[in-house]
Task: structure prediction
Amino acid sequence: MAEVLQSLEALGGADLAIEVSAPVHVQKLDKFGRAYATGKRKDAVARVWIRPGTGKITVNDRDIEVYFARPVLRLMINQPFQAAAREGQYDVVCTVAGGGLSGQAGAVRHGLSKALTYYEPELRGPLKKGGFLTRDSRVVERKKYGRAKARRSFQFSKR
Result:
């Protein structure tokens, strides 16, 4: 803004051009050509690295079929690839800690989606539309004193 406005009347007559642009997302790779992201779900935290490859997914140094034996969990992890139409194009290496298998699968899916957007920023639209980039913030409610669990009361009997 080159000119300095001295009064409100001058502000009303001034021609103010405000430039608004969408944020520019750039590719973020490490020195090995991999994209890294962290995914979280419940108490589980997943560190995910992706690079172009044949579609091999490794979780904690084990194959995905061995680590996630339930087909539903494997299907859940592959959802970002299906939404982005990139099945079988990336090798995934991830380490997961904390929580149970369902939470870990959700954490891997979240981290995988973020890593895909770091590798290919143009995939952000379809992944955001599918809801894969939003961290599911639901966690277990803490136990309260005077209660059997978070909300359940102890059994009551008069006699």
Observations:
- The mean pLDDT is 91.
